[in-house]
Amino acid sequence: MTSPKIAFLASEAPIAQQARAELAARYGDVAPAEADLIVALGGDGFMLQTLHATQAYAVPVYGMNRGTVGFLMNEYRADDLPARLATAEVAAINPLSSTAVTVDGTIHHSLAINEVSLLRAGPQAAKLRILVDGKLRMDELVCDGALVATPAGSTAYNYSAHGPILPIGSDVLALTAVAAFRPRRWRGALLPKSAVVRFEVNDPVRRPVMSDADGKSVRDVASVEIRSEPSVTHHILFDPGHGLEERLIQEQFA
Is pTM, for the whole model, over 0.85? Predict the structure, then answer.
């Protein structure tokens, strides 16, 4: 059986760089464009970076934790890597597509695997108008912000903002408020994966708002439209019994 061609990518952390050198010397290393699969060494942030950076190659990514949180990563172990890769479970996820328009009319397109968030960028609360599939659902949400999360990202910022954990196979998105002031204690909504969510910023000059898609930020937004992007699929590999579905269930009983 021919061993897969592996591209090893690592964050800038010394522990990740050390692991990359060890694994590359042991199993060989190729460029991502030539690889059968990619091994990402770091934390969840680096995994997201890797998925975005290697999207065009359409190869699965197997992460090993050399960072902090590691929700999207497997346990680091240098031994028996080809066997682990051969038996790994695959989670297929679609990112969100974000179109943000700034006050001056500039348009910014981004993809987000976890969530797209809007956050106040000044001392005053944000005032957001929410439309779903073109229908006005909330005329004004006064808040610190709001976000739309995928199932894969539902345990990240969404969960910290008291949003729901979504099963990985569910065709659902979470719309979650961040510190809602009015309507008081409004936590958000569950929406079908096909939904198109549009946020319009009321008074964006006096109450500036920024948007963020997996760490890619845009300041002074006037509106942000968010939808699932079915034309893009990321494949993440997990050790058997430790896949995303199991991890999402564990989080709810922690």
Answer: yes
CB hemisphere CA count around 146 (13 angstroms)? 35
Pick from 152, 172, 149, 171: nearest CA to 162: 149
Q: Outline where the chain has alpha helix (H).
A: 14-27, 44-53, 81-87, 157-160, 244-252
Exposure of 190 in the CB half-sphere (CA atoms within 13 A): 9
The CA distance from 163 to 148, in Å, is 10
Q: CA geometry: angle at 73 spanning 236 and 168, to 5°?
A: 50
> What are the residue numbers of the active site?
44
Domains of the chain are 6-93+233-252 (3.40.50.10330), 96-228 (2.60.200.30)
Please report where in the chains the tokens 């439309």 appear, as a residue: 131
pLDDT (tens digit, 9 = 90+) per residue, 112-165?
999 999 999 999 999 999 999 999 999 999 999 999 999 989 988 999 999 999
Check if the beta carbon of residue 143 is closer than 8 Å to that of residue 160: no
Q: What is the DSSP letter of 23?
A: H
